[in-house]
Specification:
6-stranded antiparallel sheet; 4-stranded mixed sheet; 4 helices; alpha+beta; single chain; about 190 residues; about 25% strand; Metal Binding Protein, Guanine Nucleotide Exchange Factor, Chain A
Length: about 190
């Protein structure tokens, strides 16, 4: 009896751990979410109810996910589609602007809907950077870097936390996943 209870407890812990791991991975939706038309404002308690702990840490507390993590591996194998804000569903990027910078985080050279992406100076951590935010909910997405020499139309790298994104595959029949070509510096 004691062994059976211990086994049940262990299985419950494993299931909870697997569920938490699933929740920290970039979400994928079957259809495009409804776009917010106005500013999305919520209390911290409201954000905590709709976001996973990892999404809350990144989107609401300007955190950063681990480089080359599970989310990045998923991102590299996603085909054509659109990336939306994990907090409010605003369209942010598409796979057309996606490239493999080799940095360990999802990278884009330009936002698909510039009106949904804003930037501001970030002096945290003793560095000078440009923070990227969702214009609709002020969620922290990552940072943008300019002039690194990538052979892209903008020579910008929007370095984005994957758990801050929701991916929706293109409406057409999904093409087989392929490895994104690595873009070399000039």
């Amino acid at each position: 009896m004691k062994a059976a209870l211990m086994l049940a407890a262990a299985l419950t812990l494993c299931a909870c751990s697997a569920e938490e791991k699933k929740k920290t991975v970039m979400e994928t939706a079957d259809k495009a979410p409804e776009q917010p038309t106005a500013k999305v404002e919520k209390t911290d308690q409201e954000w905590k109810k709709i976001l996973t702990p990892e999404q809350y840490r990144i989107l609401r507390q300007a955190g950063t996910e681990r480089a080359h993590g599970e989310v990045y591996k998923e991102f590299k194998h996603q085909g054509e589609g659109t990336y939306y804000c994990g907090g409010c569903n605003a369209e942010l990027f598409t796979s057309k602007e996606k490239f493999d910078s080799g940095c360990g985080w999802p990278s884009f050279y330009d936002p698909s809907k510039a009106k949904n992406v804003v930037t501001r100076d970030d002096f945290s951590g003793g560095m000078v950077r440009t923070e990227v935010l969702c214009a609709k909910c002020d969620g922290h997405l990552g940072h943008v870097f300019k002039g690194e020499g990538f052979d892209t139309p903008t020579d910008k790298r929007y370095c984005i936390n994957g758990v801050a994104l929701k991916f929706v595959p293109a409406a057409a029949a999904p093409a087989p996943a392929k490895e994104e070509p690595k873009v070399e510096k000039k």
